[in-house]
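Z., the sequence and structure:
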Amino acid sequence: MKKTVDYQKLRGFNYTQPDAANDRVFWAEYHHDIVDRDMGYAERLHLNSARIFLSYDFYNENPDRFLANVKDFVQTAWKHGISTNPIIFMGFRFREDELPWSGFMLEAGLKPIYKTLEDPSCWYIGEKYFDDLYEAIGHEEGLLFWDIANERDIPIIL
């Protein structure tokens, strides 16, 4: 039987595996059993949507494993009646010479991801990344919607 979520009563949460230092580590050291346990907790709390932060860096290193982990997450969450809202570009950088970005760097006046945005050769990389994600989870019942980027209201300083 197909599970449904009453989106008028959406009760969502951000999720990163609790034993992971960050989202890159979450996808690199993904543990199905921990996710299943945590989604069980969320179900008992009557939560119904998980927001996950995807890691382009780990995708770039191991696309097959990354995509399999993301698919497993979406399916495992949905087994508990929890939809998924993946954030596609979390600190996306496709150029080796791009500075890593953080809120602290923005406050210090450093320019975030400007080379990635201005370089058309990077656009293809982003399109392939999304196409692979779409192929892996685009038709999963548990997919709520795509979130293009975290903190998209932060201005790009050029």
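The first strand starts at residue 12 and ends at 15. Residues 120-137 form the longest helix (18 residues).

Let me know what you think.
H.
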